[in-house]
Amino acid sequence: MSNETMINPVDNSSNSSVINSELQPNNATVINTEISSPSNIAEGTTLCDKYTVISKLDINTGEADLYVCDYNSEKYIAKIYRRKFAIKPEVTTILKQINSPYIAKLYETGTIHGMSFEILPYYKNGSIQGRKFTFEELKNNIIPCINAGLKILHDKKIIHKDLKPSNIMLCDNGKDVAIIDFGISSVREAGNTVVMTRTGMTPEYSAPETFKNIFLAESDYYSFGVTVFELFCGYTPYAHMSQEEIEQYTSVQRIPIPKDMPTELADFINALTYYDIRNRKNKDNPNRRWTYEEVRNWCEGKKQTIPGEGIGNSRADMNPYNFNGKDFTDIQSLVIELATHWNDGKKELFRGYLAPHFANSSNQKCARVCDDAEEEARKCTKSDDLIFWTTIYKLAPELKTFYWKGKSFESLPALGRSMLEKLWENDKSDYAFYESILNEKLLTQYVELRVSGNRELKNAAKNIEEMHEVDGKSNAEKTYYMMAYMLSGQKIFNFDGKQFRTVGELAEYMKDLLNKSYDVFQKFCHKLIDYKDNLDTQFECWLIALGKNDELKKWRESLKA
């Protein structure tokens, strides 16, 4: 494989990309603010006494400028950093020794005008950011290349710390890829964990432990999993979420997998993004995040346990159970199918098919759970839906997805985001669904079952259900908006074709309206607050979600004065 491919050609098409997309809205990387102004190296300048500058690439990476150079009729890239001491000597020393098609070769380093620079390969095909790949392309080419590259780096004790599509280049053959951009990488000494500030990391791709300033080889594999998700779906699982929201979500939840993703790829991504790293040093424990060996085995088609679905959980083998025309030999897969096909699943339980099957499979615990559910249904103390709901989580204790009446959400935050989107579209088709969730008090029960350690989510669930009891029926839309905001953690006000994240953004927009036209400004104001001093429902809930409840109370008191 040739080393000549391009770090970002001058191309504004959707397929061109940049090294470190720090200035792009959803890929914002936190970078060192102590940077100099852009460099201006004249054409014809010679670097390292041999690389002649041809032109400057019209690309802003935020931390460096890129120049195309020529040496012996071959093109190279000079990456000139804008901040001093940008390149760590201990990292570059190791990188210069690496000769692999899966790692961008570091040919030379030096300084010009007091700024450090690197000489790198010229990747004519650009990065893989903004591109989508099929499952076969990912499994046969992209994933093996990245895994091999990470193996080399980790064997050399280097942690990349910012793996993402913009830092992965497409090679000349259009199939293989190479990892680039080691500006924030660190070297582990004697196998010790790297603990440092988060400067440079991109929150959307960052592992839960990195938000606590802990960086491991496993952290790179978490970023690898999110990267693969994006390369298949065309978007990241945490698009439009703030760093705080991502940090809260990833610490307790699996990432939300779309239903149309192949199961094999979904398992792969779940294994790479498993959030619990407590067992990472115990290679015999299946409940730990995958790294090189497991990824290699997966690429070779070897069957492995998915983290979180290992020993002591509902992935236990059982006699084949036929449901919906398919045979199931592990409990969790069966439970997912039962919950997905809700009404048919209830029939399997309440007609007494499940209990004897588990008993014949020598799983007396699951048999008792089903027997208890049948007995409770006979007493009619709870609805069949609630009994079935409770039963599926007892049968599959590791199941994180929120199931209810045939609908499924990867988590409560995912449910909240779905609600917001429908409310913004004035889609009332799921109002009865939301009402049933609140009537059965499923939110507090789910939190207690699945994320009891998340105190903030527990309080939110309790407050939502209490609000519904007080005035939910008289103002259902307000209850649903509060439920959506509190569950999702999002702070977006979607109004009049615009989106606002802060009161300051809204105030600036209104100021602009006033400068343009008083009539337009007045109409906008009366959409927010009508002539009877009633607030728009979403506006009021958004302010409460922002913590402005006290200000709202004072405003209402002032109206009475």
CATH class of the largest domain, named Mainly Alpha
Side by side, the strands of the main sheet go: 1-2-3-4-6-5
For the record, what is the CATH homologous superfamily label of the largest domain?
Answer: Transferase(Phosphotransferase) domain 1
C-alpha termini separation = 78 Å
Domain module tally:
5
Q: Poorly predicted ranges (pLDDT <50, ≥5 residues)?
A: 1-35, 186-199, 310-315
What can you tell me about this protein's structure?
The chain is of the alpha+beta class. The chain folds into five domains: 25-121, Phosphorylase Kinase, domain 1, CATH 3.30.200; 135-299, Transferase(Phosphotransferase) domain 1 (Transferase(Phosphotransferase), domain 1), CATH 1.10.510; 317-399, no CATH class; 407-488; 493-560, no CATH class. It is 41% helix and 13% strand. It has helices at 89-95, 135-155, 217-233, 243-250, 263-272, 292-299, 331-340, 342-350, 354-360, 364-379, 384-395, 412-424, 431-439, 442-450, 455-471, 476-488, 503-516, 518-528, 537-545, 549-560, and strands at 46-47, 51-56, 64-71, 74-81, 108-112, 115-121, 158-159, 168-170, 177-179, 186-187, 194-195, 214-215, 317-323, 326-330, 402-404, 407-409, 493-495, 498-500. It has a six-stranded antiparallel β-sheet, with no helix packed on it. A hairpin with a 3-residue loop joins strand 1 and strand 2. Helix 12 packs across helix 16, helix 16 (476-488) runs parallel beside helix 19 (537-545) and helix 17 (503-516) packs antiparallel against helix 18. The longest helix has 21 residues, at 135-155.
